[in-house]
Design a protein that fits this description.
With 93 residues, the protein is mostly beta strands. It has a single domain, classed as Jelly Rolls (Sandwich). Helix content is 4%, strand content 57%. The strands form three sheets. It has a four-stranded antiparallel beta sheet with strand order 2-9-4-7, with no helix packed on it. A four-stranded antiparallel beta sheet has the order 3-8-5-6. Strand 5 and strand 6 form a beta hairpin. The chain is globular, with a radius of gyration of 14 Å. The relative contact order is 0.39. The C terminus is likely disordered.
Length: 93
Amino acid sequence: MAFHNANYGIVEFASGVNPPHVCGVGASGATVHEVFCAEGGEVEITAIGGGTVTVTLAAGQSVKVLCSTVTVNSGTFVGFKSFNQGVGNRLLG
């Protein structure tokens, strides 16, 4: 038997602007906290507390920040987020 933690999720960012509801803003404890590059490209990230940065990343690189919006200009990016919905660990097996 193994334990599987169901408190984590992945957001696949579309090309163009991914607004706050896509990033999980407003959902308590479910905001994207890391933007990961699956295929090299350029992404513009706006932090929840303000400020925007445009970065060019290679596959496998990431930026750790609580995101408000993510704009994918090129490449393929995903976001990692955690949930705090009382789901807890689930027993598999």
